[in-house]
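Internal tracking record. Fields below are filled automatically when a chain is submitted to the structure queue. Please do not edit lines marked as system-generated. If the sequence contains nonstandard residues, flag them in the REMARKS field before resubmitting.
Queue: standard
Priority: normal
Entity type: single polypeptide chain
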Amino acid sequence: MSRSIHSALAVCALVLAPAFAQDAAPPPAPESNAKQGEPAAPVRPTVVAVDVEGHRRYTAKQLADALGQKVGSALDPNAISRGLKTLWQVFHVRVDHVQYREVEGGLRLLLSVTELPVDLEPRFIGNSEIDTETLRKWALLGDKSELYLYQSARVKQRLVEGYRREGFYFADVEVRVREPGATPATENVLPDVIFEIREGPQVRVKDVIIKGNHSMPDTGMLFWAGGLTKLANTDLDGPWLFNWKGSKFVEDELQADLLAMRQVYRDRGFLDAVVELESLDFHSDRSGVEIYIVIDEGRPYTVSKLAIRAVTLEVDPKSKERVDKPAELLFPESELLELCKSKVGERFESNRQLGDLAELKRYYGERGYLAHPSLAGHDPWEFLDPELVFDDEKHTVAVTYKIAQGRKRFIREVMFRGAKHTRDRVVRREIGVLPGEMADSKEISKSLSRLYSTNYFLDEMTPEDHKDPTYQFIPTEDPDWVDLEYLVEEGRVVNFMIQAAVDSNSGLFGRLSLSMRNFDATNTPDHWPEVFGDIYDKEAFHGAGQLLNFEISPGTEIDYYRVRFVEPDLFGTQFNRYGLELEFLRRTSTSADFYTEERTDRRIEIGREFGRELWAGIGYTNQILDITDIEAPLTGIVDPLGTTVPAGIFEQEGESSLIGAIFDVRYRNVDTTLNTREGVTVSWKNGVYGGPLGGDYQYYKSDIDFDWIIPLGPPDQDAPPGFRLSAGLGFSDAFGDSTDVPYTERFFLGGRTTLRGFEYRGVGPNFNGEPIGGETSINATAQLHYPLYSVVQPGSYRSVEMFYAVLFADAGVLDPDPYQLDFDELRASVGFGFGMARPLPLILNFGFPIREGDGDSTEVLSFSISYMSF
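SYSTEM-GENERATED OUTPUT FOLLOWS
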């Protein structure tokens, strides 16, 4: 053996020794053939062959190739080391020995391998409730995944866990393996793995009995429910209206419920409370279980002291950790303590601390002391972990809030990123904070809500790929000044919607709508043949914040088509702006049952903003009415169908015109116009018809509507429960040559939107069973809105409700005379409803009249169901 081969083999042996044993002793150390004073350079031998023994499933060539040592090339210890890992990780082949011997021309390697036993198609027997495809998913096996015997224990555990998740508490799995080579006939047969399953019954929770929850007893049901389990939002429950079998008994969910109950007690000041599982009482057939939970509440802790301390944060040069040092409060402590919900002598509760954090953050933020992730490392306002000193004997807690107040910030610039095709003034007019002003976090957030409410930066088609508007602060060289940057992503240019719906007010109808909500009438395309591509690329008819809308809606009771154009900033003033609205509407209605109304309305209105919340507008409307198909030929005469109709409708038979001046005022102070969670809206609509303007009737009409939404959840909750108070007051009167307000222009109540429990326009006073309408109207609604299920909106962290429930009380009065209200004619109803916000908008209201009049038309169910395709 040459010295060079000896040298290479020695190096190879040293490299490969940790990985496997060698049958042959390593060759002696080579003699150096280097020149005197120079290190020896070993020459690696050439590998002339790689042989494999012990293989069964794989060919020798497959395993030799996987080794990575090329035949005809120099011995490569690194490649062989990697190859040994590949053989194990990919082929599940263990290399027991490596033999090498010198042959003519180089080195011959021999790998002695053991292939791990594998079953190409493991079997499942005994399963009846769970199909085999589901079992394979639980086991993480594909349709034809092979199973190595050493993986059997893990697969068994996965199967048991899967069964337990489905409520099969007593499920068990046994692994049976037929090893190869047990008999001469099976010597070359692959092992056979069988998972023998004993499912047992699916266990349902029949009752959860809690003992000792004296301070939080469970009361009520559904959204009237209260108490410990409601607060803890537990998963396990016995049979009830929407799950008459009871919850599936899952032990992990039970442990999670116990943990949630303990946390509820901690959050409400019962720091010593103990919540434990007492017993599980299974039925004789093991299909049901009663869960017994025992609670020792202990005494609640109260706040013995409440203080607020200011600190400054510095980084310790040695430990590199932040340390706080005392500082002086910028505002009187007494003023800050007044904001806090936590009070001395009251219970120590974590949700009150969260409320205190929100109030203090709001207070400082409105005064320029900002708390925002983009200011991390730049001295932001920060609420640190409070100092809590407990007295176990007195059950009290001394609480000290620690605040890093940061510094007062001012806005240097307001910038926008992402509004590439939208004019700068369009987005800038929604922002209420200007360069040079103090950074008011409340106004900054309201500005963001206004940007969101424009709809210019939303995309309902692909919300998972679209980001909602947000903002960030960019520090400047002066630490007291920051740049405010709003980040937006432009949504779809054209909204095309096809809708099919059925409504208890309007019957069955369809709707085709084409809308451009960031339209620009002056931005015409450079090349008209390419107009559609330019519109899609936002290069034409886009960016000025205008609205252009076309609608066509055929229906069983109402048909209409409408064209509407809105310019919200007619003169480009951005603030206190003037707006223009043009509308053309053609509408045919048979919803009044005893006549057909065809109305053509041409309207123009110019309005002006006064600040951010108040808007007023004046305009002109020219309407043509055509009343036909009146069922009764004469007042009070019964027609062959047995119906009579009010006299007022005969005065309008045929074609007539309504020409008038309109004056509208709107006040709106809400958190966001889309999915409003809090705020007040008031609208006052007025019209004077006839007189010097012309037309066939002379009358005026005024209508005031009030809507107040009050959230009942925490201020940072995206889909909180809420209370809604709504009211409407309307009056009208004829003047000049007209003696009465036209029948079609009177006020009516009843239906899904005004007085549930009564049919649409089904509230009297009545004439022979038909409503005569009112020249004076008042109505009110009190409604509790409770989300039942919410999801996180794709592409954001915002929760949006999917299902909700409502409780409501409606009332109203119609009076046929102007400026009169006869409360003996009061109608009232109470009820409940359910709704689905998405993906299929659905509203079901069940109203029950508690006060009705002669001839009223009632209905328990009012509804609206629609299907939309974009």
